[in-house]
Design brief:
By secondary structure, the chain is mostly helical. The chain has one domain. The protein contains 10 helices and 2 strands, in the order αββααααααααα. Helix 4 runs antiparallel to helix 5. The longest helix is centred in the first third of the chain and has 34 residues.
């Protein structure tokens, strides 16, 4: 077996392992929320072992991804960085959720005005960045046909929007500051920001192989295990009526769609032909 075949085989094993870990994590956390979560206090019941197993499992999986992606002696490198038509189409899902979030934000600011209260600056910034993120996700559907500079600037504003959502989540007084649901959503939002940081490099023809591979793998793990179990438990009534972070879970869930498409492209797609490579691939950069 030649070197290229070994490299592709290693990538496929890595991709399948990350997806399997994400599925196991979703299962562990879903069971934990249904059987060991106390909605009255917002925490898992004292002495419950399965939630601990879940957190240790995800921590180990994330560390393993980092080691495999960045350890110098491990030659784990994607071979295909071209445009993913599937990922482009799937950006329609976060675009819809971002539109819904924008409507909610406009209504929130309207409530401040109706009550004669001063509108917090962070809410205004969230509104502005939310609108720019919506434009970014809509334009992402069209991929390479959008000006690279415009795409990068809007991508940065999308990252700032998610960062402000993270700050807003931290100061949400309706959810305990160290709530397990708040904590994992915070890490999921961080993973989404890292993923977008890798995505905005694509129009610039910057490869950054290991960084983009890790950010995609990290996002697959965190976005899936954060959003899917929480939404299942929420709509089943296991989280109680006081859970208020549903929009964050919806954003994480819909972002998971293009994230998975990009991750599959990085891990399972064959290397492009020489002619395609010249047209779509940046120069090698294994940072």
């Amino acid at each position: 077996m030649d070197k290229a075949s070994n490299k592709r085989r290693s990538m496929m094993i890595f991709g399948a392992s990350v997806i399997a870990c994400a599925c196991i994590g979703v299962l562990l956390r879903t069971i934990s929320l249904f059987f060991f979560y106390d909605a009255d206090i917002g925490y898992f019941t004292r002495g419950a072992v399965l939630p601990v197993i879940f957190h240790v499992f995800i921590l180990v999986a994330a560390i393993a991804c980092a080691v495999l992606c960045f350890f110098p002696k491990i030659t784990l490198e994607p071979t295909n960085f071209g445009e993913s038509k599937t990922a482009q189409m799937l950006y329609a899902f976060p675009a819809l959720t971002t539109l819904y979030s924008l409507i909610l934000q406009v209504n929130l600011i309207g409530e401040y005005s109706d009550l004669g209260q001063v509108i917090p600056r962070i809410e205004l910034f969230i509104l502005i960045f939310n609108a720019l993120a919506l434009v970014y996700f809509v334009l992402s559907i069209f991929g390479a046909r959008i000006n690279a500079g415009v795409s990068v600037v809007l991508g940065v504003f999308s990252m700032l929007w998610l960062t402000l959502m993270l700050v807003s989540l931290y100061f949400d007084m309706y959810i305990q500051i160290n709530s397990p649901n708040k904590t994992i959503m915070a890490f999921a939002l961080v993973s989404a920001v890292l993923f977008l940081a890798g995505e905005i490099r694509l129009p610039l023809k910057e490869k950054k192989a290991k960084i983009r591979l890790f950010s995609a793998a990290f996002a697959v793990l965190l976005l899936s295990t954060s959003s899917i179990p929480t939404l299942i438990a929420h709509f089943a009534g296991a989280l109680g009526s006081g859970y208020t972070a549903t929009i964050g879970d919806l954003i994480c869930l819909t972002l998971l769609a293009p994230v998975c498409a990009r991750f599959v492209k990085l891990c399972f797609a064959e290397a492009p032909s020489v002619s395609d490579n010249d047209a779509t691939q940046p120069e090698s950069d294994i940072e």
